[in-house]
Every structure is written in structure tokens, then in C-alpha cells.
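Exercise 7.
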Amino acid sequence: MNEDILRKVQIVCAWCGPAFVVFYGLSWCILGHNYPPPDSTYSAADLVNKFYLKYRGDILLGQSLSTCLGMLYLPWTCQLSAMMWKRDKSHILSLLQLTGGTTIETIAICLFAFLDKEEPAILPRWTAVLALFSGLSFLPLTFLPYFKTGIFAINGYWSFHVAFISYAMFTAIIGYYMAKSLKKGKNQAWNSSESQKRILQPIGAD
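Solution. The predicted structure, written as C-alpha cells, is:
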């Protein structure tokens, strides 16, 4: 496989992270009327009449688009796992990043950024702190069903202004550093079979 084309594909996958943040945010948050969220004190009838019926067209379009645009997250996370796989000899952190879900994913990224000693680094160590904070910020969302008002309510400060914004920042910033690393040509996720053959080929062989 042509290595230049392969690197370009990887760079596109890296930029899918920031693209996901922008386009998913616009479709799900804004067009889908998830931000600002409906009043958590609404009764079931109020929620239908004052929110779902009122914004029905926008919500249908926004949710449909976000379902499609959410696929941008997949190439980003696969590319990150591929880059981690190359440096993580046990491969456990790259697998946890790929399959672990939000909190486990960010813990794996945090550990990788701190433990990776190769130069140049793929991720600055400060992004590890951002990743960890972002992942842990989702844990208080388990309190949402129990609060109708206050910081942990569905329309409270925590869910949208702390958890979601920090996760968007983490995804976009790490995507930027992934693309930057790939553009240097020193951190490709894997070597092509042609390159491996050249390395193994005996000296003087045609």
C-alpha cells in the first residue's frame, strides 16, 4: 500500500475527532434542541406539549443528522488506538481506549500519555490531565434521575457546561495532536508490508 496515501487517510481519521465535535454539537445540541435542555420540572404532558411538539421538526432533523454525524467518532478513536498500539507493547491501553467507553477510555489515554517515553511524544502530558478530568466528569451524571433542580439536574450546570464541554475539548485537542504527529511522518500507526520486506531483505538482494 502506498505509504503517502496511507498517512493521508490516517490524518483524515485524526481530524474526524474535531469534526465530530463541531458537527455533532451543532446537530444534536443546537438543531435538536438539547441545549438548553427542557425544564426538568416539566410533567410528562408539559414535556410533550411545550417541548417535543413545539420543536418537533427541528428535533427530528437534528437527531437524524447527529445519528449520521456521530459516525465521525469511530475513525478518530480507531486511529488513536492504532497509534497507541504501536507504542504500547502490551496493547492493553490501546484496547481499553477503543472498547472501554467514556471513562475507561480517558483513563487509558491518560496513562498512555504519561507512560509513553518515545520522542517525539504523540500527546503532551497536559492532555492526559484533560482526558482524565473529562472522563471522571461523567460519573456525576448518574445522579441526574434524582435531581430536578440544581447543578446535577438535567438542565443543571454540570452535564452540559462541565462534562460535555470538557469532553468536546478533549476530543478536538487530542485529534489536533494526532494529526500533527502524523504529519511529521514519525508516528504512523503501522508499517506497510513493503517496508517490512525491505527491512528483512538480505543486503545485496535484488
